[in-house]
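FIELD: query
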Amino acid sequence: MRWLSRLKESVDREGSGDGENQHTRSVLDRVRRNDQPPIKSPPMQIDGRCMSAQEFVRYIEGLDMPQPLPIRFFLHHTWIPTRESWKGHNTLLAMKRHYERQLWRDSQGRLREGWTVGPHLFVADDGIWLFSDIHYDGVGVYGHNHLSRHLEIVGNYNDELPKGETLRNTIVALGVLHEKLGLDIANLHFHRDFSSKSCPGWAIQKSWIIPQVQRWIQEYRASRQPQVPPVDELASLRAALERLVAELTVDPDLESTLTSAAEQRGLVGPLTQQIPVEIDEQGYMVQFFVEALLAPSHQQDEVLSLGEFERAHEAEEDGSPEGDEQDPKEDGKASSKRSLLSQRVKAPPHDHHEFTGRIR
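FIELD: result
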């Protein structure tokens, strides 16, 4: 009976003194007494993909997790394979074959050969390997697999700590999964919490791994906060000045040449509507605009108009030399969007008073 020989070899290889091995020995004793062949489970279905830390974060962010969500997360180490013996996909398939030879009893007490699921992730230097479907329960801790997820760190960490990419990938995987599942990383479970095993290795302590994951989660949350656009100080200044004179100014005619020219010159707003006048038998349109002058409080002689002040600051930001003014007509911004002056217009004005005089 090959299945009975495999079971005995498995128990002899793993040794005694472990709670799960004792359970396996108990199964072996009952099988010997009853000569009961196990029911062979169908082949285990695994994912098999390997992802970088960044790819794994995007993958988890896009998952639609079914209810009920898991209530705990278990950390393990493989012990064997070690970091040195890990061969990526080939080792992953070897782990699959190992799990498919395990004996267990179902809820009806029937002996079965082969797990149907296993741990969810194997984390190594070469990436984060997807094993059992993260949407659903896996197997990792005897009697505590319901509403649980399991991560295996590749290597033996009884005498040394994980490091390098293995550690970094572990921190990222634990962090993003706890965030996705709404779990508190402070409640991270070790396999040894419910077993006589050393798993995930005596060298790994919660006081060492949990703070590292907490820092990653804090940085992750900060990176997902909406970025507040920088304050446009010049636009804020112009808006504040326009509010100051709002009661005195009138609504500008957006189609007016004078309004456009005033905007290009940086004037704050019109004080009057357009007034037709005649000068030396030549007709003109006259309109009075508000001009704002600024001077530093410590250098009162350096007076600039608001338009000159804005253009000086724009020149500094663009790196263009001072005094190298561009033709306002060639300024693309003037034609692509209205200034704050234009944005507060309600309706085109209408002048009810016709000018009938003559300017000499």
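FIELD: remark
DSSP finds eleven helices and 15 strands in the chain.
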